[in-house]
Amino acid sequence: MRLTEFWTRLEEAFGPAYAASIASDQVLSQLGGRTIEQALAAGEETHVVWRAVVSAYPDRVPARLR
Question: What CA–CA distance (Å, rounded) separates 65 from 53?
Answer without folding.
Answer: 11
